[in-house]
Each structure stands twice: as C-alpha cells, then as structure tokens.
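Researcher: Let's continue the batch. This sequence belongs to Protein translocase subunit SecY, and it's 437 residues. Same format as the previous ones, please.
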Amino acid sequence: MKRFITTLQNIFSIEELRTRILNTLLFVTVFRFGSQIVLPGVDPSKLNLTPQGLLGLLDTFLGGAYSKASIFALGIMPYISASIAIQLLTLALPYFQKMQKEGESGRKRLNQITRVLTIFVTAAQAITYLTTTIPNEAVMISPATFRIVSVFILTAGTIFCMWLGERITDKGIGNGISMLIMIGIVSRFPGAVYGEALSRGSGGALLFVLEIVALFFVVMGAVVLTQAVRRIPIQYAKQVVGNKVVGGQRQYLPLKLNAAGVMPIIFAQALMFVPSLVASLFAEKSDFAGSVQTVFADYTSWQYNVLFAVLIIVFTFFYTAISVNPNQIADDMRRSGGFIPGVKPGFMTSEYIGQVLDRITLPGALMLAIVAILPAIASLLGMTRNFSQFFGGTSLLIMVGVVLDTLQQVESYLLMRRYEGLMQSGRVTGRTESITA
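Model: Same format as before. Here are the structure tokens for Protein translocase subunit SecY:
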C-alpha cells in the first residue's frame, strides 16, 4: 500500500502528466453526460429496448447509449467502421497505398477522408436506427420531423465523440477512441456486479466470491494473450559511417501471439446473425429451418459457439495475413543491414518469418476463440447475462488492451523523470495500436 501511495504521489507531482490525467477525466465525464441525454421527442419510459446479437455488443461498447436513444446512440462506432474501411482500401487500392506512404501529409489526407466517410456512414446508420429500433409509441412528435432532426443530432453526436477522442489522444492520456469504448464498457460493470450479487442472495455469497476470483484469473489470461510475443533475434552488420563504426547490435523482432487483436471477434460476431436470418426465410416451410433459427438465436447453444469459434480462427489467420507482411519485414531488414542468424537475407528470411508467424497464429487463434466463448460458458453456469459478458469476448480484450496502453504511457512519464515504474518487477508493455488498427 505504501508503494502504491508513493506511485500516486509521483504521478501527480509531474505537472504535464497531472494535466493530461485531469483532461482525460474531464473529456470522459462529458462523454458519459452526453450518453444520458435522450433524443428530443422521445419518451424514455416507452423505449424498453433490449438489443441482441451484434446490436447488443454495440450497446455494450456505448455504455447503454444505444438502448437509451441517447444523442450519442451511435457513439464512435461509425468512425471505427469508416477507419476499418479505409484500412482495407489501403491494402487493396494503389491510390490509397501511395497516400499511406507519403508520410505525414498522406496520413492527414487519409484522416480527412475517414472523417468525411464517417459523416455518410453515421447518416446511413442513423436512418436505420430511427426507423427500425425506436418504437413509434415512444415518439411524441411528428415522426417525419423527429427523424429529420434526429439524423442531424445523431450525426453531430458522433462527430463530437470523434472530436473528444482526438482531444484525449492529444491533450489526455491513452488512445482517445479506444478510451471512449472502454469507458462505455466499464460503465456497465458496477451494475453487472450488483445484479449478480442480488441474484445469488445471502446464501450464495461464497459462490459469488468464487465468480470474482474466476473473473480475476480470466483477466490475467487475457493479459497474457494480449502481451505474449515470439521474439526473433536480428543481428545488424557493422558499417563504417565517416570515421565511426556503427551497427553490430543484436535486437529482436517481436511477433505477437495475437497479432489480429479483437478484429476477428468483431468480424465473426457480425456474421453470426446470418444463419438465423437465412433460416427465418424458410422457417414456415421447413421444420429444420425453424430449428436452425432457434439454435442460432441462442448464443449459449453449442452449435452457435462452434461456428463462432471456427469463424474467429479463420478471421484471425486472415487478418494476421493482411496486417503482417513477412516480405516487407524481410526487405526492411535487408535495407537496414539486419539479418536473422542462420537464415539468408531476402526470400529465405521472408519464408522463415512466415513459418514462425503461422506456428504462433494457430495457438493464438485457439486462445482467442476460447476467450470469445467464455461468456456463453459463464451464462450456462448460472451467471446473469450482463455479468457473464465480462468473462471474455471483445469487451474484455478491449479493456485489457486499453488499460495496458494507458499504463505504458504513464510509466514512460515516470521513467523520463527518473522515478521508479509502476511495477517493481519490470516495465509495463502495452499496445501501441488503437482499436481501429
């Protein structure tokens, strides 16, 4: 406890770090306040929205703003969708590839294109949200007027959330976009714990404690999955620059066990509604189609989770293949005079990196699939739906990744001021990429 208090004193003794933390808290407070403001013309008592499937996951990311018909009902998610689309375009179209290689000016142009695309994505999602999600009995004004005004409000709300995220990145601590998503997830945790405690009652206190202990170990497992890397040694040849000899150092190429992050779970979750949707078209004519619809509408069924796990494994290999390019890594190493001991530069190096990547991707994909289906297992064991969602899946991985990234930035400030780090045993290593990466 004494070391913890000393660490807090060191953190707040650094003026810049203290200012950034206070700015982050201010921006987060504004975000949470806006998430509670209901759209004009909506009667909150008549909403009773319980999103399921992908919409339920979206509502979790937004801290319940989606189900409350808030002015931030779409939150930052349209911006993330636009960012993912631009990233895929940079892999497919030479025009965007060239723009990405132009340095800072190219990144600024890509960011501007992403923001413009966000406006169109938000407007399209807002129209769908207003027409299919909010019930007519909850609208207290003219439906046409309500939809027109609400489209502008929801679009402005998403743009404001995007601005808040950028301000947190520039003036606060951590990645702003990821921070807003994490805050939305964490905001539901106290209510989930309270609901689980009430469901257990006074006679289930020991069982509730065991659930908290199990949650702790699950979080530790998610940390291991996020942080695990396979280090490939790289030797740099000595070079003569002027009158000095440089190089000759040994460094390491870190290949992550889970290089794809949370994207495979998000992609797989987006496709899991397809079997139920297709079966619903033939449910009246076929008993088999009706049973398929019932099975895949239940996220705790073994058929649902087997297909979910398979999709996650497939998308993990796919996303790793497009995000980690062994050929480019081998070329960069060759240009900088680096080589892997015992492996010839060029094609052989690329082959070696590809083989190592394939070997670590499979266990990483299996672990990611296990983490993704843990909420269903927890629900089958009798936990409440809200509490079981924190036992794995996208929510847990996002929280772990954002917390580690934030702690890494805080520790960097402490080490620059020659304070001890956050942990006596070693430095904190977090993610440097954002959720959209």
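Researcher: Any comment?
Model: Residues 347-380 form the longest helix (34 residues).
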